[in-house]
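Key idea: predict the complex, not the pieces.
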Amino acid sequence: MFCEKAIELIRELQRASDGQLPAFNEDGIRQVLEEMKALYEQNQTDVNEAKSEGRSDLIPTIKFRHCCLLRNQRCIAAYLYDRLLRIRSLRWEYGSVLPTSIRFHMCAEELEWFNQYKKSLATYMRSLGGDEGLDVTQDMQPPKS
Amino acid sequence: TQSYLPVPPGVGMEENFLSLDDILLSQEKLPTRTECVFPRLGFVEKTSDTRDIPEGTKMEMPLWLAKGLYDNKRRLVSVEQPKIYRQGWRTVFSADPNVVDLHKMGPYYYGLGSQLLHFDSPENPEIAQTVLQTYIGRFRRIMDSSQNAYNEDTSALVERLDVLERSLFRTGQIGLNDFQRWEKGQ
Amino acid sequence: ANTETYLKSVALKHMPPNLQAVDLGKSVQK
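Result:
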């Protein structure tokens, strides 16, 4: 059945409880993209045949494959987006320098996203509290006193 | 971490596109029947010896695919209700919703029940009503147990709950723990 | 913009032409 690899990506994240960041599954993403390419090419062939030879009986199959393409797209987008949410939370938990062990789990594009996110947050914090700005990532817990 | 805020699941019949919970919910299988031939897809249905999926094939299809193929006008697939939503089980739920192990029978009892309403059936109003009344009937115990189990093993309390109910229980526990920490000045 | 750039570079640009866009409004709870 199609889309098995895609749902595995989602399950992998679901298993990583409480916002932990598992290693980036580059191989998994690649496999899903390859499946999408194959599905799309098969559909292109069938669409051409349906048009040129009047094979309207191929329409259900074309629709089936299109559903699978949409499913794969959705799973990949959700996988990547959820990882960004976890990475974003790391800025608040660890500060602007992430531990090596966590950076090791991130791909180059995620590191770049994190750097941009830090900049956006810094710009925002500078805009608060008059000239001095305000570090809103401090004092996340009430002081012991 | 407290700052990790995943995309939440949709409410009722809605799904949130980027919600991991909704994606997993939509992976649940439904009993279906093909209402036409699906050429060149015989390999998908492993029991099929032919190149095509024949018309009239009964197969367990994931919800996402059933929703994508379902169309009132052009019948490609028809969807049956899973047992837990049929009359026999609806009677059980109306008698006492608390006796059912919704983890074993689900684990997405409410989610899948809501999604079933996308497929036309004369039983849909009753299914909707049963799902709603079951939730109402079980809510009180979940709330009470989540508020009274402090700093203890809760596995026995959640083992018969469906996914939505476990989320509810977790929310109750978070509230309880937060309150206890506040009382202690933490 | 940051998120869109990321999704495009990691995945969307490698997808079939009609699937290269994702509406990030869908990330907002309805």
